[in-house]
Amino acid sequence: MAKQFDRSAEDLGNIVGLEHVNLLVPDQGLATLFYVSGLGLTRDPYLMTSVDNMWINVGRSQLHLPTGRAQKLRGRTALVIPDHELLVKRLENVTKALGDTKFAFSEHPDRVEATCPWGNQFVVYEPSGRFAGMKLGMPYVEFDVPAGAARGIADFYSEVMGTIASVTDGAAHVLVGHGQELVFRETDGTIADYDGHHIQVYVANFSRPHRQLVERKILTEESNQYQYRFNDIVDPTSGEKLFEIEHEIRSITHPLYARPLVNRNPRQTNRNYVQGRDGWVPELEDADLGDIRREMRQKRYEEATGRPLAAD
Prior knowledge:
The chain has helices at residues 28-38, 84-94, 150-159, 207-215, 285-305; strands at residues 15-22, 42-43, 55-58, 61-64, 75-80, 104-108, 111-115, 121-125, 140-146, 165-168, 171-175, 181-187, 198-203, 219-224, 227-234, 241-251. The chain is of the alpha+beta class. A hairpin with a 5-residue loop joins strand 7 and strand 8. The longest helix has 21 residues, at 285-305. The protein is globular, with a radius of gyration of 21 Å.
């Protein structure tokens, strides 16, 4: 008999991709320091190239940063970025320039936690362990929600959005693409007022969730042929509002679906430049990493002792 497989393990549900998180920022220069120079991510070179908005590419996902009064996501955004040693070095390099802001970072055995100049929290993992399938990207966005809300939130996404959702350890986990999820974690703490930030996802069955939202009178915008929006997550049985976060819902026929995103190789500098390695290519990571780490160890040793590090 042929080998039996758990085919359900490959199911994604109706939401097929978490494309972006949108946060207003008051200063594009400070945003560049944090997201590009610090985190090592890439400003999209083709769209939103003026001074009033910036799209930051993270693998196949993005952060959209229009200019405006600062917005703060009520939770945290997870990123996968290779090599935490280099990441920490980049964050150290921008610390002085961001000294009068809410910027901060800390290094932990399995992650780096970083706070943007306006207080948004990011949890950065390396592409290993449960994130081994993602080399650069946005594996989850986690929201703090009121105690007792997780079950109803999971039911909302299952019944209204038609995707896969479950509740584990006081949190609703909603699949929103390959290796991506929304997490709604219950807390007894105070939850800040909603300030208008939003997320954007692509869905395969575009019309069914639309009908569900219209029937429940929670659709907020008929954007165009390929997009609509809603804010309120409600209990699908009682109609009780459980949480608010604007969702920008796009069809997979949207012109921007699966648009190739440019991601740079942040290891490239004018001092260690290698032709042909400007673009981020996962296969080059291991080949580049050994030499770069040796150079960093040597520099730190020389700064601390005043003498060169002996050859390996």
